[in-house]
Each structure stands twice: as C-alpha cells, then as structure tokens.
Amino acid sequence: MQHAVGAPLPPPQGPGSGPVGWSHQAQHPGHPGPPPTTPPAPGGWSGPAPHHAPGPPSRETTGHVQLPPGGPVPLPAPPAEPGTGSATLAVLLIGPAGAGKTTVAKLWASRRRVPTAHVSLDDVREWVCSGFADPQAGWNDHSEAQYRLARRTCGFAARNFLANGISCILDDAVFPDRPVVGLGGWKRHVGPGLLPVVLLPGLEIVLERNAARSGNRRLSDEEVARIHGRMAGWYGSGLPIIDNSTYDVETTARVLDDILARSIASPPAW
C-alpha cells in the first residue's frame, strides 16, 4: 500500500499484533484496556504513547560483540608445534583456473584446529548478479573495476576475520607479469603479513580439471593454456610453489600446511 507524500503513516504494530484495532487479548470487564494515547497533532496521528529507547552505544557494536577495526596484517609468530598449529595467519593461494585452489583452500581451512575462513575472489566477483562483467568476454574497464572491487572486499573481509582471531585463506589467479591482477593489490588491501603460495600442476592436469567445470568457470583450452603459460613466471620468483599434479586434495592440503609453517619461520620476499 502506498501513501501520498506527507500523508501520516499508521502506527507500528507490536510483536504478535493483528490488524489495526485488533488484539490477541480478550476485552473482558475490568481489563485495563489499550495503552494511553497521545493527543493528535495537526496533520499527525494518535496512537500509543511513544517509547523513548536509550541512546546509541558509545562505540560501534553488532549485537553485544564489538567489531575491532581491521588493520594491516602483520607477520604471525612461528608456531611452537609441527605445521601451522594454532597460528592466526592470512594466506593467498595463487594458481590458474583448474589448479584446484578453491577445493584445496576449503579443505585446508576445514581441517585446521583453530577458526579459519575461506574467501574466494571468484565467488565475491559473482556477487554481482545484474551487470556482471565476465573477464572471458574481454578484459575492459568494467571487468577491471569489478575485479578491483572484489579484491578490496576480500581484503576487508580478511582483515576483519583476523582482527577477531580467525585465520583466512584467499584464492585468486594472480599473474606475475600483470600488475593490475598482481600481488601488489593484495599486499595493499591485506598487509605485509599475507603469505602467498602458488599452486601449479602440469598443463594436462589443468586442462582435464577445467573440462569438468561448467558455466562461466569453464574456459576454452586455448585460454587455459595461455594462463598456465603465464603462471610459469612464478618459477624463480622466490614464492613457494606446489606442483600438485600427482597429489590428491588431502595430500595437497597437508603440503600446503608444511610450506606455510616454513613461510612463517622464513617469510618469502615479495
């Protein structure tokens, strides 16, 4: 129902209320009746006396849980046990389409003994339902703007997870020779404590996994080969690289944890 501009709105209904003038309470003799009303003001409405809620809290809260501000992520302290242990850390898993980034990241996050979140850049990009700029249709200003927005959103999410004691692993197809989709943006949005790891199986494996995909996640064989060739530039970069051509997901997640433990002790220069 629409109201004309300036027309009075009906009073708000309380929990469990029915239509205006109707109540769940039977009106028996002696019943105290409806609450007192305020006299009508010119152009206004009369209803229950207004309830004045207490003023807003002095600090930002969500429910009763304070949200600390997310700041640049520092390097975590080395764990005192094998693997990453209970360290709170931010990880960026890099690789071409079909490398298994999302599957490995989800398993690694779910197997940790401490709270850990997984954020996939592709998933966040696809939050845009109407007007989605698919990079497969051509990389342009529109698709680049949506990519930058998604990356910034992922970085914000990671910082807030970490500020609340929850580790975070992100995944993205980051190129070593293309700054707009390079490591610089991730470092800027997350912080210097972000630990990048490259997942790079052989081309035959990537082609096979890509063929099992559907929708806009499936690329042409030519595009897969082109991306895989550019990803080879990570060799010699100093970043840790996992060739998971012969590994199952469980083994890859275990190798990832071992590599991250070494990265915490001796962070890669990037």
Helix content: 25-40%
- Tell me the fraction of residues in β-strands, as a range: 5-15%
The N- and C-terminal alpha carbons lie at a distance of 58 Å
Supply Rg.
Answer: 27 Å
Can you give the mean pLDDT? 78
Count of helix runs: 7
* Strand line-up across the major sheet: 4-5-3-6-7
Question: What this model shows, in words?
Answer:
The protein has 270 residues and is α/β, with parallel strands linked by helices. It contains 7 helices and 7 strands. Helix 1 (101-111) crosses helix 7, helix 3 packs parallel to helix 4 (183-190) and helix 5 (203-211) packs antiparallel against helix 6. The N and C termini lie far apart (58 Å). Mean pLDDT is 78; it is low at 1-31 and 40-47.
Describe the structure in brief:
With 270 residues, the protein is of the alpha/beta class. It is built from seven helices and seven strands, in the order βββαβααβαβααβα.
